[in-house]
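User: I'm curious whether this sequence folds into something compact or stays loose and floppy. Could you predict its structure so I can see for myself?
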Amino acid sequence: MYSTPSTAFMLIATSLVMLMTPGLAFFYGGLASKRNILGIMIQSFVSLGITTILWYSIGYSLCFSGTGPIIGNLDKAFLSGVTAATPFGNGEIPEYLFFSYQMMFAIITPALITGAFAGRVSFKSYLIFLVLWQILVYYPFVHMVWGGGILAQWGVRDFAGGIVVHNLAGFAAIASVLFVGARKNRVSKPNSIPLVAIGTGLLWFGWYGFNAGSELAVDHITVQAFVNTDIAASFATVVWLIIDWSREKKPKFIGLMTGAVAGLATITPAAGFVTASSAAIIGTASGLVCYGAVSLKNKLKLDDALDVWGVHGVGGLLGTILLGVFASIQLNPNGAEGLIYGNAAFFGKQVAVSFISAAYAFVFTYIMLFLINKIVHVRVSDQEEEVGLDQSIHNEEAYSN
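Assistant: Here's the prediction. I'll summarize afterward.
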């Protein structure tokens, strides 16, 4: 018999994670130039449709059926054998609900990448990329980490997607930047900071479902993940603000919001495995390290337009490694003991998988874009870029005169 509290909570959590994709669209849309607002926002919204179809047809099955070490099978394609009454796991929630919750993760993950190549990639090539990237990059890691594959068997832990979501998306983003190249005009101010603020608020709000919901039940670990999410985000926000203020001599709103997202991304893999005090340390480290990564990206003149690598890639990698330091089995028996409790082996596994997943995402993304470019031009023409994607590709305007 289903647990009514857990089922009700997971319905809410699933809705919160769904809300993150429009939130991301607002966040990116506000940061983009006036000529590319709709071009970047549609890349998030279209994932709601295409990824749902892909997840229903083959994605869920490849991730969560079968016992293969790297990828599942097609036993549950088109939800074969699964009904509204089918229980999931220990029977607390219906499998339909788990299917839906994980689908929301699949929707937002490739959308995260789009901020890196804002204003430069054709919509046709992005649609091909959206499908292939999930099949070749996202699905294998979901299965390996969460679907009982080789990394799960090895003892790797990722509570809510530091590896599977943020690390993969962030390093795919930097690969896409290297393939596509820099914008012709890199001097591009955010068109609407209030829109960025709305997006940040929706992301932070949705992240409670993203992290706390990953317990898939209502218990003390759910509460711990919820609290850790807010603590880490808050510490990262303040640290980023302080660094930005000291360097720029002005308190920057954009910096504050970027710090918040960095903290949220960094705590994600550890949210249900560490204490509140550890979450504060992770949030502080996130503000310092992710800020440094963005500064390094700028020094190297890599045109990651909306800092996807520095915030999500480095944040996910850092959080996964710090999970290896601070994890406590006393807090969550399904976790592991971290380095501070004497478990160097677990720390080593977390470090290894962080760099393995980053390298895999980087290499496969670059090769994928190379092959897609043989079919349809990935980068828009100089004229289309100058006019802006809103007009040249979509023939629409975000703001009419």
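Summary: Residues 4-389 form a domain with the Ammonium transporter fold fold (CATH 1.10.3430.10). The mean pLDDT is 97.
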